[in-house]
Amino acid sequence: MEQLAYAPATSRSVSESLIRQAKQSLDHEIPLFESNRQRDHIESLAELYSIIVAINVLEKSFIKDNFHDNEDYYTNTVMRLINQYNLILKDDEIKKEFDDLDKFVQRLQLDCPLAVKRIQIGLPATATQSHGSLAAVNLAPSASGSEIALKGKAIAEATGSFITLMDAIKLNYNNKEQLHPLLTDIVTSTNKVFGDYDGRAKLVQWLIKLNNLKLNESLTDDELKEFLWDIDVAYKGFFSQLE
């Protein structure tokens, strides 16, 4: 029987073979996710991470008075980021993985205390602080027609916001998704008129309380009665300031 001659492979042929195999493997896409749902899930958590970091940067800049001439940019950007944050967490699976804001930042070692506080409040600093840009405008003859019209519109918006929220509570609206936007409208609209008024501080406290409610939590009947009382007190305080 004829024996085949043994021809040992050279190091060059081995290297070329390995290179060809490597090139072939690089041509194939390596999946990072097992499904599109898993990819969306991870991307949503990454988005939450970036939102927290972005808000913290904005808060630091606001404290340094970097938005003195452009507070609207700060206000609109923070409000948009907070809305995006809340929208992402409406997904039950993402909410379960996210768990809790404090736990999330601890787990990922995020040093963003200013962002955590701002998200818990649920409004930009410009909305919770007393500015009252129209407070100095009265209905005296010295006020221009445009100033009177501007203040009149702001007062009408604030009045409508108060009435809408009080009606909502009477209709048994009781959770964060229903009540927080309505209370936000009151705080932002009244801020355009007065720097402060009786009952305003309570409204800000309720904003924080509502924003920290979990999606499956609601205010109790006793809490709703107290909330309605505080809204009524603030409503009367706002209008007494107009006199």
Automatic annotation (TrEMBL):
- Spell out the InterPro entries in the cross-references: ESCRT_assembly_dom, Vps28, VPS28_C, VPS28_C_sf, VPS28_N, VPS28_N_sf
Q: Which Pfam families match?
A: VPS28
Which Gene Ontology terms describe the biological processes this protein takes part in? protein transport to vacuole involved in ubiquitin-dependent protein catabolic process via the multivesicular body sorting pathway
Q: Name one GO molecular function term.
A: protein-containing complex binding
Record bears the keyword Protein transport: yes
Q: Which domain of life is it from?
A: Eukaryota
Query: Where mainly found?
Result: other
Where in this chain does the record put each VPS28 C-terminal domain?
150-243
Its keywords, alphabetically, are: Endosome, Protein transport, Transport
Record protein name field: Vacuolar protein sorting-associated protein 28
The cellular component terms of Gene Ontology attached to this UniProt record, alphabetical and capped at eight, are: ESCRT I complex
What is the stated purpose of this protein? Component of the ESCRT-I complex (endosomal sorting complex required for transport I), a regulator of vesicular trafficking process.
Write out the similarity annotation. Belongs to the VPS28 family.
The residue ranges of the VPS28 N-terminal domain are: 19-129
The places in or outside the cell where this protein is found are: Endosome
Q: Mind telling me which SUPFAM superfamilies this protein's record contains?
A: Endosomal sorting complex assembly domain, VPS28 C-terminal domain-like
Entry keyword Transport:
yes
Q: Which organism is it from?
A: Ogataea haglerorum
